[in-house]
Amino acid sequence: MRARRLVAAGVLAAAAALASPARAAEPTDPVGRYNLACKHALAGERDAAFEWLDKAVAAGFGSVDTMEKDPDLASLRADARWPGAVQKARARANPCKTLPEARQLDFWVGEWDVRDRAGRLVGRSSIQLILNDCVVLESWSGSLGGAGKSINFWDKQHRRWQQTWVDDRGNVTEYTGQLVGDSLRYATSDGRRLTFSPLAGGRVRQLAESSADGGKSWSVRYDFVYSRKEP
Asked: Residues 205, 192: contact at Cβ < 8 Å?
C-alpha cells in the first residue's frame, strides 16, 4: 500500500525499493512491474527495463506523464524503443482514442445548423466528444421549441453502438447500432431506425424511419441535413 502511495506522489525510486519481485510478478500488478522496469533502468539493463515496461502496460499501467518525467527511466529515453513504449502506454491510458470502432461517429462532431430537405432551419445541434473521447454528446435545440440530449458510445462488451436520447418532456429512447458502409445505423426494439451518414462538404444526413411490419418496409419520419455553422 505504501508503495502505491509513493508512486502516486511521484517518488518512484523509493517505491521501487519497496516493491518485491514476487509482488511485481503478479499479472494484475502494473505498479510492481513498472517498479522493476525502473530498477533495471537504473542498473543499466535496458533490455530488461523495456521488457518490464511492456509487462506493466499490458497489466494496465498507462501513466505517460510518470514515464516521461521519472528520473529512474532517464537512461531509456534515447533508446529507439522509447517512443513505442510511450505510445503503448498512451493507448492504454486513452483506450477510446485508439479504438477504431469508437471513432466511427466522429464525423458527426461539431457545431451545426440543421435543415430539412426543403432547406428550412429546424434546429441547431452541438455534438461534442467527452469523457476522454469515449462518448459523443448531442445537445439539440429545435427552432420551434423543444430540446434534448443524447449520449452515444461504443459498447465494447456487446460490440455495438448505444444511444440514449432524453428530451425536455421526459421522453427516453434507447437505440443500438452498427456501422453500415460509412453510415452509423441505430434501431430500437419497437420498429424505429436512425441513420447518420457523412455527406460531401463535411455535412451529415440524419434519416429517421419507422416500420410497422417488422422491418419489411420503412417510412420516413424526418430527413435532416447538418451543415457546419459559420465561424
From this structure: no
Query: Residue 17 pairs with which residues in a beta bridge?
Result: none
DSSP alpha helices (H): ranges in the chain? Answer: 2-9, 12-18, 21-24, 30-42, 46-58, 64-69, 82-93, 95-98
**Domain 100-228 CATH class label:** mainly beta
| Angstrom distance (rounded) from CA 148 to CA 57 | 40
pLDDT in tens, 95-145: 899 899 999 999 999 999 999 999 999 999 999 999 999 999 999 999 999
Rounded to whole angstroms, the maximal C-alpha distance in the chain is: 71
- Over residues 150-198, the pLDDT tens digits come to 999 999 999 999 999 999 999 999 999 999 999 999 999 999 999 999 9
pTM of the model: 0.72
With 0-12 / 13-18 / 19 or more C-beta atoms within 10 angstroms meaning exposed / middle / buried, residue 2 is exposed
Task: Report the b/e string of 85-97 with b at 16+ CB within 10 A.
Answer: bbebbbebbeebe
Cα 113 vs. chain centroid, distance in angstroms? 25
Report d(CA 65, CA 210) in Å as an integer.
49
What is the domain partition of the chain in residue ranges?
2-93, 100-228
User: Where does 59-216 have alpha helices with state H?
Assistant: 64-69, 82-93, 95-98
**Cell digits of residue 209:** 424511419
Residue matched to cell numbers 467527452: 130
One-letter amino acid of 222: Y
